Amino acid sequence: MKEFMFLFRGGDEVWDTKSPEEQQEHMQHWQQWIGEIAEQGKFVSGERLRTQGKTVINKGTSIIDRPLTEGKELVGGYLRIKADSIEEATEMAKGCPGFRWDASGVEVREVWPEH
Amino acid sequence: MSDFLLIIRGGQELYAQNSPEEMQQHMEDWQDWMNTLAKEEKLLGGQPLMNEGKTLLDFGKKVIDRPLAEGKELVGGYLLIKAESLDSATEIAKNCPSITYNCSVEVREISPM
Amino acid sequence: MVAVLIKIFGTENIELAEDVVQDALLKALETWKYRGLPDNPSAWLYRTAKNRAIDVIRRNKHSRVIDFSDPQRQLLTSNYTLGATMDTYWQEDSIKDDFLAMMFACCHPNISPENQITFILKSLCGFSTKEVAKAFLTGEDTVSKRLYRTKEYFRKHKIKPQIPKPDQIVLRTNTVLSAIYLMFNEGYNSTHSNDLIRKDLIGQAMLLCRSLFSEERTALPQVYALMALMCFHAARVDSRLGSNGELILLDKQDRKLWDPSLIDSGKLYMNKASFGNQLSTYHLEAAIAYEHCSARQYENTNWKKILEYYDILLKLAFDPVVFLNRALVILELYGPLEALEAIDHIKNEKQLQGYYLYHASLGEINKRLQQLDKAIAHFENAIALTGSKQEKQLLEGKIQEMMKSIQSK
User: Fold this and answer.
1) What single Pfam family name could you report for this chain, choosing any that match (chain B) (predicted)?
2) Residue C408: pLDDT band by 50, 70, 90 thresholds?
3) Is C62 in the B-facing interface, judged by CB distances under 8 Å?
4) Were C282 and a residue from A18, C3, C226, C232 both cysteine, which residue would form a disulfide, CB within 3.0 to 4.6 Å?
């Protein structure tokens, strides 16, 4: 099996508009989704990221006080999973609970195989 | 101490122009850097990503055959580290060997919830 | 609460679980001292413990202390799922299951009974190491060693707390019942402690048994039977000790001190134990105990019925101790000669040679046969074999009585 990384794109603007109950329910959806992946032995790791960040650019000579990409392209979190092919991984990504709330994307990338 | 994700972007084109020896050297630089971080017990994980990818858009209904962001913004790999603060994590990020290829390193704290 | 935390951290991390409980309690004391008791203290405590557990998970996320390879526990490693997963661990149903599951883990058939009980008291009954040591009159070192061995066993064999599968449940429940009964007996007739009766152990044993029948899967007839048996015994607890702490045997006990409500509960559980066609030793022992409880005077005891129960008990499984008790029933029914004849069948049983009640029984039979010298010798053997102060006192009293009657002749 290969390892893939899901990069969840899009910010937390929607999150902030929801009530605590809705947020809690949303996290239960995440738990169910990742739980199913874990039950198949395909979960590796994953985290949500804080919206704030810094970026080192220009060969390390300057630092900007924000993530490189923002808005719809902001990386909001990631998930590492195992799958046989990028097609299977993409299929799995369709279940991402993030799609319940907004249209922003999930980028599916294969991790460089270890040798 | 908190956990931080370093997102390494861009530099692929410049890197592709390297000779095999230079590529080998670059891999060794990475090895050294990661070893140093591991010895300081700051390294939690990290991997390079292949350039190809797919992206799900439009509530997951649409799939395109490429990463969402490309070129200078193509995510080439990540590193998960431990650091005292966003600033000290950013200091660590400055030493990323791929900086020579003009990649950018985005430093993001893992959100507690 | 410890059971839930052990499920979260793994059986190998019982200290981590205890620390969290300790922290939560301390925090509760500090907060409640200034702000007063919250509306729902136990919910407050659970929430605090849950938050502490989340901290512990975060702190140990990248260490090897906690084994995160289990699919459910894997979800604790990601902040996407940590909160919701933690919540499911703390749901009421899940807490109840965890308690039972932990009980089954503790009572693994390959763990010795004393280690089983030590671990149960520590992980489920909230006893400190010191309290467990006191209950068994051993050092804290010994208790720590027992706990360590059990933990090692859990670790090595990757034993997870879980309620056994249907085809295993009867067998495994029986092991749990033996541990519960052993704990109860330790409380009812403590062999190790200076206190002959330890109500805390009695109470804990009954609580554990109750948790078994409050779950459908483990509400087996023998579970109710053991509960009935413990009720009948517990009903008599207060009459077993005199005002000076001396032991009082059944024939001299003040039956007005027996607790009628416990006897009633016992009857209720007896009825519940009668479904199915399972007849366990607990059913028969409960029936015998009930006969004693229902006799208004010692003289009214229905020894014939009791003898019948003993006969069935022995048919279920031969046990020299049961046979010995049956001989004592014969003593009441048919007299010392018959009793001596009965006891003769088991005189070569090794297990009985070190058992003080065997020697005490022989003493009693010989006393009734007016073989006073023999009786005294047997009682002296019995004294040497019992660790209990009260038992010794009782037997010494009998010897002195006989000495007097020898001298007066």
Assistant:
1) YCII
2) confident
3) yes
4) C226
Contacts 24+ apart (CB under 8 A), C392-395: C393/C246, C393/C247, C394/C246, C394/C247, C394/C249, C395/C360, C395/C363
Sequence spans of domains, chain C: 1-90, 108-219, 223-301, 329-409
Delineate the domains of chain A, giving CATH numbers in brackets. 2-110 (3.30.70.1060)
CB-based contact A93 B73, cutoff 8 Å: no
Over residues A22-28, the mean pLDDT reads: 90
Q: What is B2-109's CATH number, 3.40.50.10330, 3.30.70.1060, 1.10.10.10, 3.30.428.10?
A: 3.30.70.1060
Reported as a pLDDT band with limits 50, 70 and 90, residue A102 is confident
Neighbours of chain A (3+ CB pairs under 8 A): B, C
Looking at the structure, give the CATH architecture of the domain made up of residues C329-409: Alpha Horseshoe (1.25)
Alpha-carbon distance of C206 to A107, in angstroms, equals 57
Interchain contact, C85 vs A35, CB within 8 Å: yes
Please, how many CA atoms are within 13 Å of residue C333, restricted to the half-sphere of its CB?
A: 16
Bigger pLDDT: B85 vs C36:
B85
A57 neighbourhood in chain B, CB within 8 Å: 104
Supply the pLDDT for residue C39: 82
Out of C71, C79, C84, whose CB is closest to A38? C71
Closest CB to B44: pick one of C58, C62, C79. C62
**C79 and B44: CB-CB below 8 Å?**
no
